[in-house]
Amino acid sequence: MTNQEIIRLVDVSKTFDDTPVLKNINLYIRRNEFVTLLGPSGCGKTTTLRIIGGFEEPTTGKVLFEGKDITNLPPYKRKLNTVFQKYALFPHMNVAENIAFGLNIKKMDKKLIKEKVENMLNLVNLKGFENRSVDSLSGGQQQRVAIARALVNEPDVLLLDEPLGALDLKLRKGMQIELKNIQKKLGITFIYVTHDQEEALTMSDTIVVMNEGVIQQIGTPIDIYNEPKNAFVADFIGESNIIDGVMIEDYVVEFANHRFKCLDSGFEPNEKVDVVVRPEDVKLVPKGQGMIEGRVLSVLFKGVHYEMLVQSNGIKWLVHSTLMEHVDSIVGINILPDDIHIMKKVN
Amino acid sequence: MKKGWIAYPYVVWLIMFIFVPLLLIVFYSVTKTTDQGIVFTLEHFQRFFEPIYIMVLLRSLYLALISTVICLLLGYPLAMILASKEYRHKRVLILLVVIPMWMNFLLRTYAWLTLLEKNGVINNFISFIGLPRMELLYNQGAVILGMVYNFLPFMVLPIYSVLIKIDKSIIEAAEDLGANSRVVFRKIIFPLSLPGVVSGITMVYMPAVTTFVISRLLGGGQFTLIGNLIEQQFLYTGEWGFGSALSLIMMVLILFSMAIMSKYEKENEGGGLF
Fold it and tell me: Counting one residue from A and one from B, how many pairs have CB atoms under 8 Å apart?
């Protein structure tokens, strides 16, 4: 990843039939970066991607590519390629013809096309599939053909619209790693749309969290997970306990009838805030040794950890721990200052 | 099937109205009544190969071909307009295509008579603006016009039904890979719409070859088509044997071309009407 900017969205807004879908999106993407647009369905992430791809025109605002305005350029003149959600392979062509489609349009030499198609099939592990019809392929294989069909054109930017959405969990994990490897190997900018936060955390250099047409936070996966900017991001990226609290003074916050030390400052005295604590940061200790106490309501085994609900002073804490406590036992709860994230209340 | 008896009325129906008439046609076509009674003969089929009748067949095929080509040239763009999402008056246009099909076929054809007549609407208009009246009726053009008018919806609808099923994202994918609208049409839309085109051609060509009403009304009896010939044998000359032979020949021709069409369609993963 370099610091050279390749795509920039300037004040991009989009309305469909008077319904605003995107509100003033400002975003820049660097060369060779793996950027993920993350958000719940209907948040505008796909529309953003389609505007970059040229399939939608923004109602207002501009799209810049290497500094040049491409807002009104049709898709076939843009130096980027797209992997579509449902693959969108051409049903009347075989695998090789699908992949060669873009090269044939550029009237490239037949021999060279054949060579490039072969290289691509090797890259996506589909050697020997040249003459298969696309209907005979599994979802994962069709997906790989779609990726090969886009990549063979050597685009500067590859757009991916929830490309793994239709695959089962195991296949998806495998493809995530494969995609990331391809991206590193070819050094292409990937703009990836997904609603799966785990996928975003695994693959991205930068995550753009969106909700209701507004960018909520832009940052590295680690930043976004550890320092969510608001309660929405905290809730969407991983599970969280979001609790009403009061900032007593700098570095002291009160919630669950207890004053906790924290690392945040700069709030008004007694300002009402959202307190976010990750379930794995709620430490359970024997009764009497904790800052507060609570009763275990339920225990679920989740494989690596146990998921427990602990009730304390009217708050239900979601707790992840590798040690199991018994239902109805009384436990102490400790939360370290480092693990308490204070957020301004929205409105 | 345990409840096969439910189908018995249908079987009776089939025998009475399809199987028996067909058998009768075959019977008439290979027999003639002489002094010795009814005897087997192939002379009806031999008679068909006289040049005058071959000419009638060729003329039928030729006029139907021209009408089909015109229907395709008019129908394909129309189907594309109907299938495009952007077009606002889509519903009105679909209605305009379908409404004539709700009216009686004869009535629609008679309507053209009043339009094209020597003292018809069009000629009155032409003379009103000071031009000489024209012979619009009773020529090949009028027959072709009647065929195109009557059969155009059968071309438009199958093509339309295939076009609206083409996934929009496939077209976007082609644009994404560098295809402008002309290339998208040539390499994606047209190949994918072929099953509809094949259906449309079948549905226009078959009735156009066998029609006798259009050629009689608009052709004024000067353009005897195979349909007219068959009609004459049964209604006027009373040569049922020759008429039956002609019908059988037509049927074989139609079955043959249907077989070719349906084979072609299967290879293309059909989506048409058959």
Answer: 61
A56, closest residue in chain B (CA to CA): B172
Assess contact for B231 and B214: CB atoms under 8 A. no
Q: Looking at A188, A213, A233, which one is the last position of a domain?
A: A233
What burial letters (b/e) apply to B55-81, b meaning 16+ CB within 10 Å?
ebbebbbebbebbbebbbeebbebbbe
Which site among A17, A105, A116, A145 would you substitute to test the B interface, given the most B Cβ atoms closer than 10 Å to its Cβ? Answer: A105
B68-104: per-residue pLDDT in tens? Answer: 999 999 999 999 988 887 767 788 888 888 888 888 8
Q: Which amino acid is at B262?
A: S
List the single best residue of B168, B177, B267 to mutate versus A (max A Cβ within 10 A). Answer: B177
Q: Residue A260 in 3-state DSSP?
A: strand
The CATH number of residue A291's host domain is 2.40.50.140
Conformation bin of residue A271: beta by default, left when phi > 0, alpha when psi is -120 to 50:
beta
> Residues A316, A171: one domain?
no
Residues carrying CATH 1.10.3720.10, chain B: 43-267
- Interface residue ranges in chain B relative to chain A, Cβ cutoff 8 Å: 167, 169-170, 172-180, 183, 187-188, 191-192, 268-269
Per-residue pLDDT reduced to its tens digit, A315-346: 899 999 998 899 999 999 999 999 998 888 87
| Mean pLDDT, range A246-273, rounded to an integer | 90
For the CA atoms of B185, B186, B188, B189, what is the dihedral angle to 10 degrees?
Answer: 50
What is the fold, at CATH topology level, of the domain defined by B43-267? MetI-like fold (1.10.3720)
CA distance A300 to A278: 17
C-alpha A340/C-alpha A263 separation (Å) is 8
